[in-house]
Specification:
The structure is a single chain. With about 170 residues, the protein is α+β, with helices and mostly antiparallel strands. It folds into 2 domains: about 80 residues, no CATH class; about 80 residues, no CATH class. The protein contains 4 helices and 9 strands. The chain has a 3-stranded antiparallel β-sheet, with no helix packed on it. It has a 3-stranded antiparallel β-sheet with strand order 3-2-6. The protein has a 3-stranded antiparallel β-sheet with strand order 7-8-9. The longest helix is centred in the C-terminal third of the chain and has 28 residues. It is globular. The chain starts with a helix and ends with a helix. The chain binds zinc ion. Zinc ion (ZN) binds next to loops.
Length: about 170
């Protein structure tokens, strides 16, 4: 039930992951939890999509862009996350290492959804809450520098370019 603890904990804060491509704006509503029926995200962050010729925006899940994203009470959130969550979905992908491209696993569910890990078992490893909190602080401080660096790496690093190519081929 570590996953539940993680979700509840995550519900205390803002969504800091990658925003869905359709999302125009994000707004944080501290203390007001929202639940996504599509990707099961629980967070206080609202994604907004601007609608042409309208003053109002459409509120969506910041992670998956789904409109099935509703305000939820603490009790409701507990009910949602108490559902059994299967943490055994993963796929093989190419990843960049110092020695060159290698195959790793991407977790498709569970606390590390979307993450690439060396071993399948790592997808179900419990989240270290302290470490996650530290990373949040680091990210807030260095995100501009990190984004600039990542952009350059994706452009010039040969392994990075090769990995992108290999994963594209794999998808077909
Ligand atoms: Zn979602």
């Amino acid at each position: 039930m570590r996953l539940n603890e993680f979700n509840i904990n995550e519900a205390e804060g803002e969504y800091t992951g990658v925003y869905h491509q359709t999302v125009d704006l994000v707004r944080d509503t501290p203390g007001e939890y929202n639940y996504c029926y599509n990707c099961k995200l629980v967070s206080t962050t609202l994604g907004e999509i601007e609608v042409e010729d309208q003053d109002e925006t459409t509120v969506v899940c910041p992670r998956c862009g789904s409109e099935a994203y509703f305000e939820a009470s603490d009790e409701e959130i507990k009910d949602f996350v108490d559902e059994d969550v299967v943490v055994d979905e993963h796929e093989l992908v190419w990843a960049k290492t110092k020695k060159g491209p290698t195959m790793k696993w991407r977790c498709l569910s569970g606390p590390r959804k979307g993450r690439v890990v060396p071993k399948v078992i790592d997808c179900s490893e419990p989240i270290d809450v302290a470490q996650r909190a530290r990373m949040k602080v680091t990210r807030a401080r260095t995100k501009i520098r990190q984004a600039r660096k990542a952009k350059k790496t994706k452009r010039v690093n040969p392994t990075s370019r090769l990995v992108r190519m290999l994963n594209k081929i794999k998808k077909r």
